[in-house]
């Protein structure tokens, strides 16, 4: 069974969602975090409100966590039908911009090839992007060999269930995100 994959969304994305008419549905589908608590070696050392440290404006003065599949479905059902379509399991293998339109060659499900014509081409294919590479745009990110873990845990916490807890120690790092059920958290850390 595939595990839910959370996505964190901040105000700029929510502002775009608001223009698209889907911000309230995204908020209803997700979990709102107003605060973060910082723990070092088991001791709470600091806490802060996102509205105090980040340049948030009302009404989006929080971080939203939403399941990636719910977010993808929301975008596909509410938005992309108006503007285009999402092609899953598809890879851009080449393209040409002739000034008026883009002609792209796609590989679908690793076996068939299709050519499409479009006004815009958005390739969200990561660090090894054929589109980014073809345009001569360097990858300025960092590739990491770290192994991340994710688990749903139950723990008793006297602090707010609307805050993210980030915990650092000599043994590593873990963040805990409340996920709606009382005392249930999504734990994300580095092995």
How much is the radius of gyration in Å?
A: 20 Å
Mean pLDDT: 81
Number of helices: 5
**Biggest β-sheet, characterized?**
6 strands, mixed
According to DSSP, the number of beta strands is: 12
Task: Summarize the structure in words.
This protein is α+β, with helices and mostly antiparallel strands and 191 residues long. The protein is 22% helix and 39% strand. The protein is built from five helices and twelve strands. The protein has helices at 11-20, 23-29, 50-53, 68-83, 130-134, and strands spanning 6-9, 31-33, 35-40, 43-49, 63-67, 90-97, 102-108, 112-118, 148-154, 163-169, 172-178, 184-190. The strands form three sheets. Strands 4-3-10-11-12-9 form a six-stranded mixed beta sheet. A hairpin with a 4-residue loop joins strand 6 and strand 7. The longest helix is centred in the middle third of the chain and has 16 residues, at 68-83. The two termini are 23 Å apart. The model has no long low-confidence stretch (mean pLDDT 81).
Task: Please write out the topology.
Elements: E1 6-9, H1 11-20, H2 23-29, E2 31-33, E3 35-40, E4 43-49, H3 50-53, E5 63-67, H4 68-83, E6 90-97, E7 102-108, E8 112-118, H5 130-134, E9 148-154, E10 163-169, E11 172-178, E12 184-190
Parallel strand pairs: 3-10
Antiparallel strand pairs: 1-5, 2-5, 3-4, 6-7, 7-8, 9-12, 10-11, 11-12
């Amino acid at each position: 069974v595939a595990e839910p994959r959370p996505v964190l969304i901040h105000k700029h994305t929510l502002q775009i969602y608001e223009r698209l008419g889907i911000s309230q549905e995204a908020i209803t589908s997700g979990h709102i975090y107003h605060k973060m608590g910082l723990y070092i070696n088991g001791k709470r050392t600091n806490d802060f409100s996102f509205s105090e440290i980040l340049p948030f404006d009302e009404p989006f003065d929080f971080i939203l966590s939403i399941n990636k599949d719910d977010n993808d479905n929301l975008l596909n059902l509410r938005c992309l039908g108006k503007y285009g379509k999402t092609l899953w399991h598809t890879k851009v293998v080449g393209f040409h911009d002739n000034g008026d339109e883009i002609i792209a060659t796609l590989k679908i499900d690793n076996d068939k090839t299709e050519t499409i014509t479009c006004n815009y081409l958005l390739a969200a294919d990561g660090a090894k992007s054929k589109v980014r590479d073809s345009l001569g745009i360097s990858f300025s990110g960092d590739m990491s060999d770290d192994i991340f873990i994710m688990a749903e845990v139950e723990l008793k916490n006297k602090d707010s269930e609307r805050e993210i807890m980030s915990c650092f120690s000599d043994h590593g790092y873990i963040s805990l995100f409340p996920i709606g059920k009382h005392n249930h958290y999504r734990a994300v850390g580095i092995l």
